Amino acid sequence: MSAPRTADEFYRRGLELNLAGDVRTALDHFLSSFRIAERPTCAISAANMHLKLGERDRARAMYDRAKRMALSLSQEALVRSKLETIDAQARVAPLVSGFLQEVRPDDPRLHSLRTMLSNILNSEDEAKYRKVKERNPKIANLLEIGSARRLLE
């Protein structure tokens, strides 16, 4: 396969690399594509890779750049959602960390939390999620930011 030269080639290769699980190299390709042609899709894809790599500040910067571009309605909604997720992560991460430091592995509260989160994460029932969100916003935030998935590992 020849080396990519155009923005489109870098972008397509970035998609392939991401699907193959090579997130770091995919990021490099999306950034190269963005440097050649400052397109929203390139910025959003690069931001997504930063997010996958746990680089929230860099992801935020790319989403902010994308936000200043001409976006479709779906891109605008996606960027807004991702920025809200990053903000939620920043607010909730210390709470989760603090809770996990306070409990022992055999603490029944931890088992109950894992069970509840697992049931909700495995459920496609939106009404159930809304009910949880109304009753306990902190748990809902865990679900929204994906911290719950890390708790279950």
In words, what does this structure look like?
The chain is mainly α and 153 residues long. Helix content is 79%, strand content 0%. It is built from nine helices and no strands. The chain has helices spanning 7-19, 23-36, 40-52, 56-67, 73-102, 108-121, 126-135, 137-145, 147-152. Helix 2 packs antiparallel against helix 3 (40-52), helix 3 (40-52) runs antiparallel to helix 4 (56-67) and helix 4 (56-67) runs antiparallel to helix 5 (73-102). The longest helix has 30 residues, at 73-102. The protein is elongated. Mean pLDDT is 79; it is low at 147-153.
What labels describe this entry?
single chain, 153 residues, mainly alpha, 9 helices, elongated, disordered C terminus
Care to give the gist of this entry?
The protein has helices at residues 7-19, 23-36, 40-52, 56-67, 73-102, 108-121, 126-135, 137-145, 147-152.
Q: What is the N-to-C succession of helices and strands?
A: HHHHHHHHH
Oligomeric assembly: single chain
The best one-word shape is elongated
What share of residues are in beta strands? under 5%
- Give the mean pLDDT: 79
Helix content class: over 70%
Count of beta strands: 0
Helix/strand structural class: mainly alpha
Poorly predicted runs are 147-153
Sheet with the most strands, sense and barrel status = none
Number of helical stretches of at least 4 residues: 9
The rounded Rg comes to 18 Å
- Separation of termini? 38 Å
